[in-house]
Amino acid sequence: MKNKRFLVVFLLVSLVLAGIVSHYASSSPDGLEKVAADKGISAKEKDHSLKDAPFADYGVKGVGNGRLSGGLAGIAGVGVVLLVGGGAFWLLRRRAPARDA
After folding, report:
1. How many domains does the chain contain in total?
2. Which of 14, 22, 50, 70 has the most CB atoms around its CB within 10 Å?
3. Is-contact 60 54, C-beta < 8 A?
């Protein structure tokens, strides 16, 4: 029961941080891209082949509101990390030794 409560609180905090608080973290979430723009290096950049992907540029394609788009992308990211990390943990977990009958 205690572990279940911890997981629920962890999930809720993660979703709030990714969906709401991340909007206030930085106006330039990709530091390398910001430095390249500041130094003029990005003048030679070409569009990435995945520029039209559903979650390109820290947002959700088709959602016009930037805040909502970024929040949804963050929430989707939390979900993907939990699924992949949880799946890896589930696959690699140690199993209890078999009991002798």
Report:
1. 1
2. 70
3. yes
In a domain, 39, yes or no: no
pLDDT tens per residue across span 4-14 = 999 899 999 99
- Three-state DSSP class for residue 84: helix
Average pLDDT over every residue of 72-77: 93
pTM above 0.90? no
- What tokens were used for 55? 């979650």
Complete DSSP assignment for 9-73? HHHHHHHHHHHTGGGGT-S---HHHHHHHHTTGGGG----TTTTSTTGGGS-TT---HHHHHHHH
Q: What domain range includes position 85?
A: 1-24+65-100
